[in-house]
């Protein structure tokens, strides 16, 4: 088992006038699972391609372990990679696909066979060695691609939206398998996706990308609970964003809700919004201590089985939504009902407003 | 929709094939063995006279040489085009297609202008002082070969190119990142995946070469006579039955060689796919 740290150091990639990656900085610890999360064009794939050696950085340095790799061709970097469309060699059997990296490294005979079979068994495809890729289902191809990418024990594994071609159920199942493989193999994993749920499920840390830069990097809990910008707050999950107005004595009033907030750290009236996640807002009896509360009318009730999504308008005219997870003692409310809602000020996060 | 309900869609193609391929072929075969009563004399004459066997053997040999040369030249050209940016690919393919708009007759005459006693090549050689006497290039086997390769090359380039565009570039990237040097990625992934299309092109070029007539007639000497030239000669002398027998032989040789080439291609593919090159 081998594992390595890696780092991007002020990496810039320009395609003509377009800046795909802008002074990108990131340190990844050995064995860490880091996800590059962002919409298309945010630079996440460019960063991965520079790491794999498919694209050259215009400026900056990339290191894997203790060596700079910017001048190394892909085959010298010793990284494994799983591609979006699997990219299994269609003319080779499952066995030969998985054996491919080992053959190139000079492994032959019984040692080769043993390792290939072991890798196929790890991904539960021990009986499929003689099949052609075209005879496999999407999930099976994905697992072969994974076995092929890790069989030569690379210290770093790259995964480029590997699950995006699978249907939802299979995707969730594969997420759990990838998590299990990571625990088993222990190599450093860089995972690229535009699916925020996938990023939260899999990662030790998530780097939220925007316009070739990292908007925020942190653990899934950090970026969900403490987004640092409107962009991150809106990209990860759903949220309510309220405008703040300066009140007296350092307090704030929330536009549209007509309530007063205790002082919020790091907020100012010109560029700050207040982000409150829908699951943090709930119906309250009159004025509970420590809660910010306000009157609202329900405009939409969406029943989802394990939870209910409510849309509402505050008495001050602000639209908002919240979720009820149907714990013991809760009941389904009706559209048009007048209710009192509230949230804990500690669950409200000030975020920088997007300039655009 | 049921197969029987759409069966009539085959009708136009079937009628066309019966009218213009099956019926004439049958007629050809009939003419070769009825003169006017049943006889095998024309086939016996073909087999017993070494001059005819020589022509058959030469036709196969020249066609194979042309097919192999077109492949050796065409594959790298297709490879190069496939690596270019999209727009330049379109331009290059257009340039390759232009000669195919001209008739084979015109392209063959162009070679007379180039290779003749006072042709382009001899003028150049004289100008550079490399030759005092004009070189004899017309009416040689080399002239026939050069012209046939030039005429058929676009077909092989386009066939190879079509096969290459089907190859997902991520497969090459995958091979590289998994440890293959560029040459290894080429040999183990790109070449095997373009092999089938390349062999198809080779067979097409071979098939077309087998029936070549104008080019050997105009650019070659007696020693370059191919089966099609023999057929024309016999038709001129109104030996219909013997010409028909030659036609049957050409058909059988061509089909037989295609089957053999396909078989050899499959064997080669299996070897390449198993252990790499």
TrEMBL record, chain A:
<dbReference type="InterPro" id="IPR013611">
    <property type="entry name" value="Transp-assoc_OB_typ2"/>
</dbReference>
<dbReference type="Pfam" id="PF08402">
    <property type="entry name" value="TOBE_2"/>
</dbReference>
<dbReference type="InterPro" id="IPR027417">
    <property type="entry name" value="P-loop_NTPase"/>
</dbReference>
<dbReference type="InterPro" id="IPR003593">
    <property type="entry name" value="AAA+_ATPase"/>
</dbReference>
<dbReference type="GO" id="GO:0005524">
    <property type="term" value="F:ATP binding"/>
</dbReference>
<keyword id="KW-0067">ATP-binding</keyword>
<keyword id="KW-0813">Transport</keyword>
<dbReference type="GO" id="GO:0016887">
    <property type="term" value="F:ATP hydrolysis activity"/>
</dbReference>
<dbReference type="InterPro" id="IPR003439">
    <property type="entry name" value="ABC_transporter-like_ATP-bd"/>
</dbReference>
<dbReference type="InterPro" id="IPR017871">
    <property type="entry name" value="ABC_transporter-like_CS"/>
</dbReference>
<dbReference type="InterPro" id="IPR050093">
    <property type="entry name" value="ABC_SmlMolc_Importer"/>
</dbReference>
<dbReference type="GO" id="GO:0043190">
    <property type="term" value="C:ATP-binding cassette (ABC) transporter complex"/>
</dbReference>
<feature type="domain" description="ABC transporter">
    <location>
        <begin position="6"/>
        <end position="236"/>
    </location>
</feature>
<keyword id="KW-0547">Nucleotide-binding</keyword>
<dbReference type="GO" id="GO:0140359">
    <property type="term" value="F:ABC-type transporter activity"/>
</dbReference>
<dbReference type="InterPro" id="IPR008995">
    <property type="entry name" value="Mo/tungstate-bd_C_term_dom"/>
</dbReference>
<comment type="similarity">
    <text>Belongs to the ABC transporter superfamily.</text>
</comment>
<dbReference type="Pfam" id="PF00005">
    <property type="entry name" value="ABC_tran"/>
</dbReference>
<protein>
    <submittedName>
        <fullName>ABC transporter ATP-binding protein</fullName>
    </submittedName>
</protein>
From TrEMBL, chain B:
<dbReference type="InterPro" id="IPR000515">
    <property type="entry name" value="MetI-like"/>
</dbReference>
<dbReference type="Pfam" id="PF00528">
    <property type="entry name" value="BPD_transp_1"/>
</dbReference>
<dbReference type="GO" id="GO:0005886">
    <property type="term" value="C:plasma membrane"/>
</dbReference>
<keyword id="KW-1003">Cell membrane</keyword>
<protein>
    <submittedName>
        <fullName>ABC transporter permease</fullName>
    </submittedName>
</protein>
<comment type="similarity">
    <text>Belongs to the binding-protein-dependent transport system permease family. CysTW subfamily.</text>
</comment>
<keyword id="KW-1133">Transmembrane helix</keyword>
<dbReference type="GO" id="GO:0055085">
    <property type="term" value="P:transmembrane transport"/>
</dbReference>
<keyword id="KW-0813">Transport</keyword>
<feature type="transmembrane region" description="Helical">
    <location>
        <begin position="238"/>
        <end position="261"/>
    </location>
</feature>
<dbReference type="InterPro" id="IPR035906">
    <property type="entry name" value="MetI-like_sf"/>
</dbReference>
<feature type="transmembrane region" description="Helical">
    <location>
        <begin position="60"/>
        <end position="81"/>
    </location>
</feature>
<feature type="transmembrane region" description="Helical">
    <location>
        <begin position="136"/>
        <end position="164"/>
    </location>
</feature>
<keyword id="KW-0472">Membrane</keyword>
<keyword id="KW-0812">Transmembrane</keyword>
<feature type="domain" description="ABC transmembrane type-1">
    <location>
        <begin position="56"/>
        <end position="261"/>
    </location>
</feature>
<feature type="transmembrane region" description="Helical">
    <location>
        <begin position="93"/>
        <end position="116"/>
    </location>
</feature>
<feature type="transmembrane region" description="Helical">
    <location>
        <begin position="185"/>
        <end position="218"/>
    </location>
</feature>
